[in-house]
Amino acid sequence: MNKERAQWGTRAGFIFAAVGSAIGLGNIWRFPSVAYENGGGAFFLPYLFALLTAGIPLLILEFTIGQKYRSSAPLSYFKIRKGAEWLGWWQVIVSFIIATYYAVILAWSLSYAYFSLNTSWGDDTEGYLFSSFLKVLPGENAGQIGSIVPNVFFPLLIVWVLALAILFAGVKKGIERANRVFIPLLVIMFGIIVIRAITLDNATAGLQAFFAPDWSQLTNGKVWVAAYSQIFFSLSIAFGIMITYASYLPKKTDITNNAFITGFANSGFELLAGIGVFATLGFMAGQLGVGVNEVVSGGIGLAFVVFPQIINEIPTWPGLFGFLFFASLFLAGMTSLISIAEVFISGFQEKFGISRRKSVAFGAGTAAVISILYATQGGLYIFDTVDRFINQYGVALAGLVEIIFIAWIARELSALQNHANSMSDIRLGAWWKICLGLITPIVLGFMMIQTFTTDLQSNYEGYPTSLIMTAGWGLSIAAVLIGVLFTRFKWKGIHSSIPQSPNHKGVAK
């Protein structure tokens, strides 16, 4: 390298950043409903199994690649095998696409944190979200863009200004400092939400619904796939983030310990979110005189329709409860957004030999401009389609290719295992290679076949074929092609002769 690589100030700083990346919107609005719909308390068994056989092994893999090769995702794969550089760029482009729409949800959260102070949404929370706030085009016009919605556009500007300020400040002074503040603040704020939630009337009914085990579900294959899917999508693995973050670690660091801490911290927050969300849903069910099963929701509907309804019913300080909830969403999303952006910032900086400031301005600046597309009247349909396809045929498929490449093509597992063991207290045994070489690719492969079959049979959400072909299939394929195109450019940020791994087949001790 021509210049000394940026580095975390402390080990705790890296862990805060990695945990901040892993804890995102999905922890709060996806995990509770997924657990409830897949066996309740019984779901924790496949969930824990998936964490130990896929989540943490993959975290260790990506931490080791990043720490060993001390490069962005594309350059790390290039160092493993020259012809694999495209895989890293594929993950970089996927991260870039996700950054463009992820920021919009943060803009919604920021607005709703303000709205919650006087419950601006009124009694019709669904109508307020889609008609008054987002001004969404009618369903028959899905695929059209429409005009820019000021309600979303201006908060989006604030989101990007804050994200750019953090990214411009660098790894240690920007990302590390921000996560050192945001993550403890997030835990404190969400902890207050949980305490308030479990003291609400009928909260126990919600918790019983969440934890009641349906053991018969353990024989259902879909439940196990749901557990692996939840672990896979919630740990920020397979789109270059953890490789990039680990590349800023010092030459000597405990890799496996860091991975276990990150994995269990993420799962601990998901459990906390489940308790808070279901205690609150129990309260709402009691207010409406219906069963908890009739108010369970997930995703955007849970956060921006159901929770405002609940906030309307809370007897004491509803505005404060609402503000804490949406501010928590904002903080969880912001720490993830800056980690996603860091993937392409690091890649562009190394590839084109430009300064970090230029890379932030070009990469994150371009993502910010494109994100305006999602602040339009048709933005919700485009967002929903892109999110669905880029997660399945970007993140998940790239993850499957990554594992097959490392385990079966490059046959790097033994070298990476030895590297991790050379500096970690928890030593990796045969279990790690079995998990990555067999279990994870089989489960991921099954997930991909299942999703691919479903998407071929019908249009996702019944959206027009033109939207599915452009924002769905078209963008997913374009991510791969653009990744390949990037390999045509020479590396300008590094010496022309890039050294291979210090010990391509052995131990780097």
TrEMBL record:
It is found in: Membrane. GO terms for cellular component: membrane. It comes from the Bacteria. It is a multi-pass membrane protein. Keywords: Membrane, Transmembrane, Transmembrane helix, Transport. The chain crosses the membrane at residues 12-31, 43-65, 86-110, 148-169, 181-199, 223-248, 260-285, 323-348, 360-383, 389-410, 431-453, 465-486. Pfam families: SNF (PF00209). The keyword Nucleus does not apply. InterPro entries: Na/ntran_symport, SNS_sf. This is Sodium-dependent transporter. The lineage of its organism: Bacteria, Bacillati, Bacillota, Bacilli, Bacillales.
